[in-house]
Structures are given as structure tokens and as C-alpha cells.
Write a sequence for this structure.
DNA sequence: CTCCTAAGTCAACAACGGTTGACTTAAGAC
DNA sequence: GTCTTAAGTCAACCGTTGTTGACTTAGGAG
């Protein structure tokens, strides 16, 4: 069994390849352990590289984290989506971010501890959720976006960090069914009370 | 102006008094910074005491945290409460825990990072929310409790940790008005989908 | 006044972990 | 083959921080 030349692993990777490998390992570690508990030495070991390489490519531990926690929600355009379809459009995207993007979990874990991470998470609310919400809603868009975000955030923490049994084991469809009316409510219900 | 003898501050406090002062300072610090970022030296300095005292009274940093994060939700009995009154009964208690009990914030901040804290938070769901919910609900009590908990948790993180502007500044009444239908839904709506 | 004990201080240890700078070696160019 | 450069290693530094044990002192009991 012979391997094509292109696949033969080079004894030394290219710089971008190592950089990418480090970043990937960092994503996983930060997502699983949070900023403070991750040791640069561990990340380096995951990749099979000296800790100095991490510094070489990312300057500092915080630089590494910033790169690892970089990601976009990339919410779909909600213009013209009916009230009853909102959840069905939004939830798959949330599941995607939760389960396929270690950057989100990294940020989530760090947000309760690091001022910088909290700011980044906050920017997610104002920079990505709020505009998407504004497309379907006329009044109180910031409030509605924040409330929606709080529910999504709470679900993420409960399901993926705390792993609350009923939530962690629940199928996507069932969870969506439970949450759909909440999304509908936050995005479309008329305001109940004047802001004092 | 003379002070009664009992009030005259002793040059040395009693052991329980110092212990309590340390615990209080720890609560505040842990609630504001999370487990890893708090230095025993800071806690000691807050109280005006040597770091060794912290160890003397709590054995270890983790022991101190365990004591600081100790608290009970103490939810009211929901038996006989009408569907429309659930939020009005529950929310004041949640506000109380959020704003007056630094133990909760400590736990919240630590839960995303420490396995032990996460377990403790989880026990809050199963040991305190779930039983309270079971009193008003026949079917799917665990799921309902978990979903309710996820929303409450999300609100706490958004309002007190991230300080998302619309939520952080929103009055209690308005927030309750927004959330009430959600609580109602999670606790009383008939199940929409079979668990696969 | 004098002990005795509990409250408290002090200095230092030891491990940990981010960061650095000098050195080594692979691999492509000529 | 040799030279150059980029990829990578190595050892050590140095600040931080939980933790310890020996020492000090206040203050009530006798």
C-alpha cells in the first residue's frame, strides 16, 4: 500500500499548518475547561509541539484565546418569516453553533470570569442577535433580542456545560418544540408593560 | 458620645466573628470574580487579616469556596397556585437570590469552569427546582423544571454577569411581565411532542 | 500581677505556569 | 554538496499564589 506524495506527512509542518493545529487544540481545550484552567503546556502537548510555539504564533495566552473564541453567529435573515416559523428557522443555527463551533463554548465558559470575554459575548447580543431580531420586529427590538438571547444562553449553559439530564439528553426536535413558543413570545408578543 | 460596652470594638475579634467576616468577603469576591481569579491574599486583605487565617478557618481555598457558595433557593410552595400567578410567586424569590445572595453569583461564575461547582448548580436544579415544580405539574416535571431553570439561569447570566444593557436596566416589574408567559408555558403547557 | 490560651502575624517554601532567548535542525535553493 | 532560512527545541527565569510552621501578643481567669 503506497501513499501519494501529497499525503506523506512532512517531518516539519508548514508554519500555517502548525498554527492551525494549535488553534484547533486551543479551541477544544478552552471550550472544555475555560480560560484559566487551560495550560499552554497542555495545548502544545496536544499538538506535539513545544510550548514556545504557542507564544511564537499567538504572542500570549490571551492572544491565543482571542483567536480561539473568534466566531460568528451568522443568523439567517428573518425578513418575512412568519411568527410560527421563527423557531424552526433559528434553532438549527443555534444547534450548529453550540455543537460544531468550539469557539462558542470557549466564549461561554470564559464569559463568566473574564471581562474581555464577557464584552465579546455582549457584542454577540448587540452586534448579531439584535440586528437579526430587528428585521422581524418593530418595537422594543433591543429588549426582545436580549430576552431571546438570555433563553438561548441559558439553554446552552444547561445543556452543554451543566449537562442537566433532561436537557442534555433531549432530542433537537423535542427541545425545539418546547422552546418555539418562547421564541415566538419574545419576538412577537405585544409589550405587556410600559417601561417605567 | 459614649458607646455601650458591648459595642466597643475589641482589638481582637472573636474567632467566629473573623471567620464570618472572611466568609462574607469571600462571598463578595467569588461572586464578582469567580473562583480562579480570587486570591486568598485579597480576601484576607479585605478583612484586614493575614492570609494564614483563611487557611486556619477554612482549610483550603476550595473549602472556602464551598462554604461561600452554600445557599438554598428556598422556593415557595406552589401547591394550589394558579397558572397565571406562578411567575408572580416565583420571580420575587429569584430576584432575592440574584441580588441579595452573593453565594448564588459565586456559584454561577464558577459553574462554567469548576466541575464541583457545576455539580452543585446541577443539584440546585434537581434538588430544589424540580421538587417545587412537581407540586404544580403532573407530567414531564423533570423536563419542565430543567427548562424553567435554563431560562432563569440565562436571565441571571445576562443581567448580572454580562450586564446586557436592556436587561440590566430593566425594572423588576417589566422583566417579570416579559418572563411570566414563559414560566407559565414551561410549567403548564401540554407537551407538544413525544420524546422519541 | 501573672499565666495561659486563643487570635493573629511573619517569613518562607514549593509548585506552577507564562514567557523568553539562545540554540538546533530540517529542507529547499543554488 | 553547501548555504540559508524558517521550524522547532531546550532550559531557565521569574512572578504568582496556596500553604505551612514557628513565633508573637492580647486579654481574660486566678
Amino acid at each position: 500500500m503506497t501513499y501519494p506524495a501529497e499525503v506523506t506527512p512532512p517531518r516539519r509542518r508548514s508554519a500555517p499548518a502548525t498554527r492551525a493545529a494549535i488553534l484547533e487544540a486551543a479551541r477544544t481545550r478552552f471550550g472544555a475547561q475555560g480560560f484559566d484552567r487551560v495550560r499552554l503546556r497542555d495545548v502544545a502537548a496536544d499538538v506535539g509541539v513545544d510550548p514556545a510555539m504557542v507564544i511564537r504564533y499567538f504572542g500570549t495566552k490571551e492572544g491565543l484565546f482571542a483567536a480561539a473564541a473568534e466566531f460568528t453567529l451568522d443568523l439567517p435573515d428573518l425578513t418575512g418569516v412568519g411568527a410560527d416559523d421563527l423557531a424552526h428557522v433559528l434553532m438549527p443555527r443555534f444547534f450548529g453553533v453550540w455543537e460544531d463551533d468550539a469557539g462558542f463554548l470557549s466564549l461561554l465558559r470564559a464569559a463568566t470570569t473574564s471581562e474581555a470575554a464577557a464584552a465579546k459575548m455582549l457584542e454577540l447580543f448587540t452586534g448579531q442577535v439584535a440586528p437579526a431580531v430587528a428585521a422581524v420586529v418593530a418595537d422594543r427590538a433591543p429588549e426582545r433580542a436580549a430576552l431571546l438571547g438570555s433563553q438561548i444562553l441559558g439553554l446552552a449553559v444547561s445543556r452543554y456545560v451543566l449537562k442537566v439530564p433532561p436537557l442534555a439528553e433531549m432530542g433537537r426536535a423535542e427541545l425545539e418544540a418546547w422552546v418555539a413558543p418562547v421564541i415566538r413570545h419574545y419576538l412577537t408578543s405585544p409589550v405587556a408593560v410600559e417601561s417605567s
User: Anything to note?
Assistant: Chain B touches chain A through 54 residues (CB under 8 Å).
